[in-house]
Amino acid sequence: MPMVDMSFFDSLPIFVVDAFASQPFKGNPAAVCLVSTTCHPQVCSNAELMQNIASEMNLSETAFVISTGNPDTFTTGDSFSLRWFTPSTEVNLCGHATLASAAVLFRKLSNTNPVLKFDTLSGILPVCRNGKLISLNFPLNTSISQTLNDYRDLLKAILDVTLIQEIEYSPNTKKILVRLKNEVQKEQLKNLVFNISSLPLIESSGKIKGVILTLKGTKENGCLDQNGECFDFISRYFAPWVGIPEDPVTGSAHTVLASYWSKQLEKNDLYAQQCSTRGGEMRIVVKDDRVEMSGQAAITLEGRFNL
User: DSSP states of 146-164 as a string?
Assistant: First the structure.
């Protein structure tokens, strides 16, 4: 078993990883900090310091992987604490930063355990190797039907409401899911532009933390990957309420999307794309009240954060 170079932990090791992407500059970038209770006791339980680091990184999420004991445990251990911060707040669940964290442990720290378990605000989240993919096992988040009148002002600021087929709300995640009509083209969703910063001014009740726009994938509306395979659904996700105008690829949003689309399509194996500018793809399997989301990751930067 390889040993970790202790000098690497003289300052705080940090990585940038493009999650749900097979190559750099795609998918969703996340920062990953490796925090040892031995080497970084000043960081381990200091939420204010973690928030300052996340604000400095200014990515949609910065993850803090916390290991009890010496840095060797990043190589030998299979259980870690994990916290996620946007540039402005701590969040309860983040998929892409969890995938990024596992990629760092598996690929840079040579952790050979088949499954890693992360202790988080959303419970224990198992992550495993799956060939070239990394698979996340997350809680499935259901949603309930809503009417347009519940969100008319907010949605009018985003798009032409006549394009909306259905609206649902996920109480656990405080996200609304807006399904567009089947005749809407992928390019219409991909090219949609609006004033994202206005959303928290229109909806300030605290009930909403994010808006998901989603479309059923068909050959007719252009939802094909580069190999000609049709996506089951595509989406975009906006969360200015937590400091993220648009998130490139969002695991937490897909815990809601997976629940919705598995029921709509009457299937548990799904293929999805988040059609942001960077874009990202994932394979999804719904299993009872859990969802397995699999994707690739590209580690693009590594360094040390001087505190």
Answer: E-GGGTHHHHHTTS-GGGE
pLDDT for position 71: 86
Place of tokens 């994938």: 217
- What mean pLDDT is predicted for residues 211-225? 97
Give the integer Cα–Cα distance in Å for 56 and 74. 24
Three-state DSSP at 196 gives: helix
- Give me the active site residues, please: 61
Q: What is the structure's pLDDT at 1?
A: 46
Q: Tell me, rounded to whole angstroms, the distance of Cα 262 from its chain centroid.
A: 19
Scan for tokens 């442990």, then name that residue. Answer: 105
The reported pTM is: 0.89
Beta carbons of 4 and 11 less than 8 angstroms apart: no
Cβ(61)–Cβ(84) under 8 Å? yes
Rounded CA-CA distance 246/269 in Å is 26
Q: Give the bridge partners for 36, in sequence order.
A: 67
Residue 126 structure tokens: 């198992």
